[in-house]
Amino acid sequence: MFDLSTLPTKLYYINGKRVEQIKKSMIAETERLPCVKADKSRGEEIRQTLKEFKLLRTDAKITSDETFIYLPLIRTLTDAEIREIGDVELLTLDFTILERRKSIEAIVGFKPSYEVIGDIAVLTEAIDNRKEQLVAHALMNRHKNIKVVAKRISAVEGVFRTRKLEIIAGENRTETMHKENGCRYKLDLEKVYFNPRLAGERNKVAAQAARSSVKEEEVLDMFAGVGAFSIQVAIRAPQSHVTAIDINPDAILYLRENMKRNGVNNIDAIEGDISEIYEKFRNTADRIIMNLPKSAYLFLQEALSMLKPHGGILHFYDLEFAYPEEGEEKHDALERAITQAKEKLIAKVQELDEEFRSYSVEIRDARKVKPYAPYAYIIGIDAMIEK
Ligand SMILES: C[S@@+](CC[C@H](N)C(=O)[O-])C[C@H]1O[C@@H](n2cnc3c(N)ncnc32)[C@H](O)[C@@H]1O
After folding, report:
1. pLDDT tens by residue, 190-246
2. Pocket of ligand 1 contains residue 198 by CB under 6 Å
3. Contact 158/248 with Cβ under 8 angstroms?
4. Which of 18, 148, 249, 288 could form a disulfide with 120, with the two C-beta atoms 3.0–4.6 Å apart?
5. Which of 193, 195, 270, 369 for a ligand 1 pocket mutation test, highest count of atoms within 8 Å of Cβ?
6. Superfamily of domain 115-173 in the CATH hierarchy
């Protein structure tokens, strides 16, 4: 696969004899792999989707030319997967296989639980101080992009859904810049809510908005935070207009800054309590995003009243618990949680004021978005509401 004569060499003298040896570090292994060829502008988005579907060969080096990016795959894709990703070509190419680096688990001797947002790593499970320092330094040595290591000292709490952090290594700050699906978000982890594990979900909702049959959609993000859903929708569906609402003034400040940073001007960012301002948006929305998993039901009536007179799409997020029953597989328990979420949404519409009870609810999709706790899941539901 290589032309060895082109590789750099080292000279050795053994017993006075000149020995030429190819520098070991320069020998890279290559492997012929199926890959996705995609326009560079969609590279990051497709990389995230493939990673989320566990289809990306993370030990092979992604390549690109002026126009296209080539993403190596674990296996070739099915027609359904190609349709889901959209506008990509399948090829087979040679890829450089990267040397595997030691995992954090291998360095510290146990599997620490953490998430990385921008250049900040947050330990999400309590461990003793000595282990904390071990993990923090392993993270900073192993990942040169991590500049701060913090630990969570409160749950996600309050109306703003924020958490308290304590810095345990690195720079003394909680503000960072996070990249997701080709967008950049500035945010302060203590002042606003942000969860990097929603990247795949935001990609799905933005893809649906981009494929919408409604020409100039009016999208309403009821609990917008720093704008992660809103900005991705606004970019992928540039003909649409997004109203992004949040009660947290800091979230709206970051949202406005993030709109500029991502070159987006089809969003109106509004600070306010949706239960106080929803009347202004009555009968205006084609699509509503309700990302407030524990409490979204409390705002269902407001949401339905804001959909256009004929109805529209609801992206609804729910928290469901499903403890496996005796002999039940974890997977079946999850299916039960998804069914519970679907039935609950339909039942909750029936509990609203009379005018809303006649609306028809067609569940188009329901899925696990992320685990929340052992046996608890955030479930995402796409529902078509006809008024
Ligand atoms: C779970 S976070 C979701 C943030 C964002 N959608 C994201 O994906 O990063 C919920 C957001 O709803 C906001 N919120 C809570 N109650 C609200 C209300 N009554 N009206 C408007 N926003 C509210 C919080 O400030 C928080 O930013």
Report:
1. 999 999 999 999 999 999 999 999 989 999 999 999 999 999 999 999 999 999 999
2. yes
3. no
4. 148
5. 193
6. Met-10+ protein-like domains (3.30.300.110)
Which structure tokens are listed for 126? Answer: 């309590």
How far apart are the CA of 156 and the centre of ligand 1, in A?
12
Q: Which residues of the chain are modeled with pLDDT < 50?
A: 1-9, 12, 14, 22-27
**CATH 3.40.50.150 occupies which residues in the chain?**
195-386
Measured from the Cα of 192, ligand 1's closest atom is 27
Q: Is 372 in the pocket of ligand 1 (CB under 6 A)?
A: no
| Closest to 225 measured CA to CA, from 148, 291, 275, 286 | 291
Q: Which of 277, 292, 301 to mutate to test the pocket of ligand 1 (most atoms within 8 A of CB)?
A: 292
Residue spans in the chain of domains classed CATH 3.30.300.110: 115-173
Cα(380)–Cα(202) distance, rounded to whole angstroms?
A: 11
Q: Which part of the chain has CATH 3.30.70.2580?
A: 29-97
3-state helix/strand/coil string of 71-99: EEECCCCCHHHHHHHCCCEEEEEEEEECC
User: Residue 172: exposed, middle, or buried by beta-carbon count in 10 A (0-12, 13-18, 19+)?
Assistant: exposed
Domain 195-386 -> CATH class: alpha beta
Q: Ligand 1 centroid vs 120 CA: distance in angstroms?
A: 22
CA of 121 relative to ligand 1 center, distance in Å = 23
Question: What topology does CATH give the domain 29-97?
Answer: Alpha-Beta Plaits (3.30.70)
Tell me if the pTM is above 0.70. yes
pLDDT of residue 81: 86
The phi, psi pair for 287, rounded to 5°, reads -145, 135
